[in-house]
Amino acid sequence: MTTAMIADDEAPLLKYMQSMLAKCWPELSIVATANNGEQAVEVIKKYQPNIAFLDINMPGLTGLEVAQKCNAQCHIVFVTAYDQYAVEAFEAQAVDYLLKPVEQNRLEQTIERLKS
Fold first, then answer.
1. Which residues are within 8 A (CB) of 63 and not within 5 positions of it... i.e. 6 or more apart?
2. Mean pLDDT over residues 29-56, rounded?
3. Predicted structure pTM score
Protein backbone atom coordinates (compact mmCIF):
# COMPACT_ATOMS: atom_id res chain seq x y z
CA MET A 1 0.00 0.00 0.00
CA THR A 2 1.28 3.45 -0.90
CA THR A 3 1.16 5.94 1.96
CA ALA A 4 1.38 9.72 2.08
CA MET A 5 1.28 12.71 4.36
CA ILE A 6 0.17 16.26 3.61
CA ALA A 7 1.60 19.40 5.22
CA ASP A 8 -0.07 22.79 4.80
CA ASP A 9 -0.64 25.59 7.30
CA GLU A 10 -4.00 26.54 5.74
CA ALA A 11 -6.73 24.10 6.85
CA PRO A 12 -9.01 24.61 3.80
CA LEU A 13 -6.13 23.87 1.42
CA LEU A 14 -5.14 20.82 3.45
CA LYS A 15 -8.69 19.46 3.21
CA TYR A 16 -8.81 20.31 -0.50
CA MET A 17 -5.65 18.26 -1.15
CA GLN A 18 -7.05 15.37 0.88
CA SER A 19 -10.25 15.37 -1.16
CA MET A 20 -8.42 15.70 -4.49
CA LEU A 21 -6.12 12.80 -3.65
CA ALA A 22 -9.06 10.67 -2.50
CA LYS A 23 -10.78 11.36 -5.82
CA CYS A 24 -7.75 10.87 -8.08
CA TRP A 25 -5.91 8.11 -6.17
CA PRO A 26 -8.44 6.31 -3.92
CA GLU A 27 -6.01 3.50 -3.02
CA LEU A 28 -3.52 6.01 -1.55
CA SER A 29 -3.56 6.00 2.24
CA ILE A 30 -3.09 9.41 3.90
CA VAL A 31 -1.43 8.40 7.16
CA ALA A 32 -1.18 11.89 8.69
CA THR A 33 -1.31 15.63 8.13
CA ALA A 34 0.75 18.48 9.53
CA ASN A 35 0.10 22.21 10.02
CA ASN A 36 3.72 23.40 10.03
CA GLY A 37 7.20 22.31 9.08
CA GLU A 38 8.22 20.92 12.45
CA GLN A 39 5.09 18.75 12.59
CA ALA A 40 5.82 17.59 9.03
CA VAL A 41 9.29 16.35 10.04
CA GLU A 42 7.81 14.54 13.07
CA VAL A 43 5.07 12.94 10.95
CA ILE A 44 7.57 11.76 8.31
CA LYS A 45 9.84 10.25 10.96
CA LYS A 46 6.95 8.60 12.82
CA TYR A 47 4.86 7.24 9.92
CA GLN A 48 7.54 6.91 7.21
CA PRO A 49 5.14 7.64 4.33
CA ASN A 50 6.17 6.87 0.76
CA ILE A 51 5.20 10.41 -0.31
CA ALA A 52 5.11 13.83 1.36
CA PHE A 53 2.97 16.57 -0.17
CA LEU A 54 4.52 19.75 1.26
CA ASP A 55 3.50 23.38 1.17
CA ILE A 56 6.59 25.57 0.85
CA ASN A 57 5.60 28.58 2.94
CA MET A 58 4.82 27.21 6.42
CA PRO A 59 5.61 28.38 9.96
CA GLY A 60 8.66 26.97 11.67
CA LEU A 61 10.39 25.11 8.88
CA THR A 62 9.61 25.75 5.23
CA GLY A 63 8.68 22.85 2.98
CA LEU A 64 12.14 23.14 1.42
CA GLU A 65 13.76 22.74 4.84
CA VAL A 66 11.52 19.74 5.59
CA ALA A 67 12.58 18.19 2.28
CA GLN A 68 16.25 18.72 3.07
CA LYS A 69 15.80 16.93 6.40
CA CYS A 70 13.64 14.08 5.05
CA ASN A 71 14.06 13.62 1.30
CA ALA A 72 15.89 10.32 1.61
CA GLN A 73 12.94 8.96 3.59
CA CYS A 74 10.17 9.62 1.05
CA HIS A 75 9.29 11.14 -2.31
CA ILE A 76 8.57 14.87 -2.10
CA VAL A 77 5.88 16.76 -4.00
CA PHE A 78 5.64 20.48 -3.35
CA VAL A 79 2.19 22.07 -3.41
CA THR A 80 2.46 25.84 -3.26
CA ALA A 81 1.16 29.17 -4.51
CA TYR A 82 4.70 30.36 -5.25
CA ASP A 83 6.35 29.52 -8.55
CA GLN A 84 9.69 31.15 -7.67
CA TYR A 85 10.85 28.17 -5.59
CA ALA A 86 10.68 25.58 -8.39
CA VAL A 87 14.43 25.43 -9.03
CA GLU A 88 15.17 24.97 -5.32
CA ALA A 89 12.46 22.33 -5.12
CA PHE A 90 13.99 20.23 -7.85
CA GLU A 91 17.44 20.72 -6.34
CA ALA A 92 15.90 19.14 -3.23
CA GLN A 93 15.02 16.11 -5.39
CA ALA A 94 11.29 16.88 -5.62
CA VAL A 95 9.25 14.52 -7.77
CA ASP A 96 6.95 17.37 -8.78
CA TYR A 97 5.94 20.95 -8.08
CA LEU A 98 2.22 21.75 -8.09
CA LEU A 99 0.83 25.26 -8.06
CA LYS A 100 -2.28 26.07 -6.01
CA PRO A 101 -5.09 25.72 -6.66
CA VAL A 102 -4.17 22.23 -7.83
CA GLU A 103 -6.11 21.20 -10.91
CA GLN A 104 -7.27 17.61 -11.26
CA ASN A 105 -5.51 16.91 -14.56
CA ARG A 106 -2.21 18.25 -13.18
CA LEU A 107 -2.55 16.14 -10.03
CA GLU A 108 -3.25 13.07 -12.17
CA GLN A 109 0.04 13.70 -14.02
CA THR A 110 1.86 13.81 -10.69
CA ILE A 111 0.20 10.60 -9.56
CA GLU A 112 1.30 8.83 -12.75
CA ARG A 113 4.85 10.07 -12.18
CA LEU A 114 4.77 8.78 -8.58
CA LYS A 115 3.37 5.40 -9.59
CA SER A 116 6.12 4.89 -12.15
1. 7, 37, 40, 54, 55, 56, 57, 78, 80
2. 97
3. 0.95
